[in-house]
Amino acid sequence: MIESSALEEAVAALRAGGVIAYPTEAVWGLGCDPDDEAALARLLRLKARDPAKGVILVAASIEQAAPWLEGVSEAQRATLAASWPGPTTFLVPDNGRAHALVRGDHDRVALRVSDHPLVVALCEAFGGPLVSTSANRAGEPPAMSADEVRRVFGEELDAVLEGELGGLLRPSTIRDLATGRVLRS
């Protein structure tokens, strides 16, 4: 059960340009508004992540991801619909919608539609996709609990949305939509 006041606090933090932590399918994640340049830059600084790498966007539904999917063929949409919601992140061609810090040095955007109830509720309450990147400093293992998140980031986050991990043993598979090639299994 998701505590509505905690969800409201996390959404308010996101809308105010904050960076939050929340549980995902396999590890704890950091998130922010993917259209807020200052929030994106802050999230990357917190992680000490190379901006060239880009980040994943997570959505509650294919409809939420639709602005990033304009230009994707019907066959490719069918591939997405057959896999989502679920633990597969697809690299889709950038149609100009993604911020440069989301994309990194790539011509594709990493998108996932989650089936994790808390992630879905968070994206629905926020009204769109969020950045979803593992809650850790670059080169360190991802946090597996809210306590670990707090140990790593202390007071640097604007909200920590309590909840359970989704039970997967590893982060989502990353697959190139155009080629089908698996980049992370």
Automatic annotation (TrEMBL):
<keyword id="KW-0548">Nucleotidyltransferase</keyword>
<dbReference type="InterPro" id="IPR023535">
    <property type="entry name" value="TC-AMP_synthase"/>
</dbReference>
<keyword id="KW-0067">ATP-binding</keyword>
<feature type="domain" description="YrdC-like">
    <location>
        <begin position="4"/>
        <end position="185"/>
    </location>
</feature>
<keyword id="KW-0819">tRNA processing</keyword>
<dbReference type="Pfam" id="PF01300">
    <property type="entry name" value="Sua5_yciO_yrdC"/>
</dbReference>
<dbReference type="GO" id="GO:0005524">
    <property type="term" value="F:ATP binding"/>
</dbReference>
<keyword id="KW-0963">Cytoplasm</keyword>
<dbReference type="GO" id="GO:0002949">
    <property type="term" value="P:tRNA threonylcarbamoyladenosine modification"/>
</dbReference>
<dbReference type="InterPro" id="IPR017945">
    <property type="entry name" value="DHBP_synth_RibB-like_a/b_dom"/>
</dbReference>
<protein>
    <recommendedName>
        <fullName>Threonylcarbamoyl-AMP synthase</fullName>
        <ecNumber>2.7.7.87</ecNumber>
    </recommendedName>
</protein>
<dbReference type="InterPro" id="IPR006070">
    <property type="entry name" value="Sua5-like_dom"/>
</dbReference>
<comment type="function">
    <text>Required for the formation of a threonylcarbamoyl group on adenosine at position 37 (t(6)A37) in tRNAs that read codons beginning with adenine. Catalyzes the conversion of L-threonine, HCO(3)(-)/CO(2) and ATP to give threonylcarbamoyl-AMP (TC-AMP) as the acyladenylate intermediate, with the release of diphosphate.</text>
</comment>
<dbReference type="InterPro" id="IPR050156">
    <property type="entry name" value="TC-AMP_synthase_SUA5"/>
</dbReference>
<keyword id="KW-0808">Transferase</keyword>
<dbReference type="GO" id="GO:0000049">
    <property type="term" value="F:tRNA binding"/>
</dbReference>
<dbReference type="GO" id="GO:0005737">
    <property type="term" value="C:cytoplasm"/>
</dbReference>
<dbReference type="GO" id="GO:0006450">
    <property type="term" value="P:regulation of translational fidelity"/>
</dbReference>
<dbReference type="GO" id="GO:0061710">
    <property type="term" value="F:L-threonylcarbamoyladenylate synthase"/>
</dbReference>
<keyword id="KW-0547">Nucleotide-binding</keyword>
<dbReference type="GO" id="GO:0003725">
    <property type="term" value="F:double-stranded RNA binding"/>
</dbReference>
<comment type="similarity">
    <text>Belongs to the SUA5 family. TsaC subfamily.</text>
</comment>
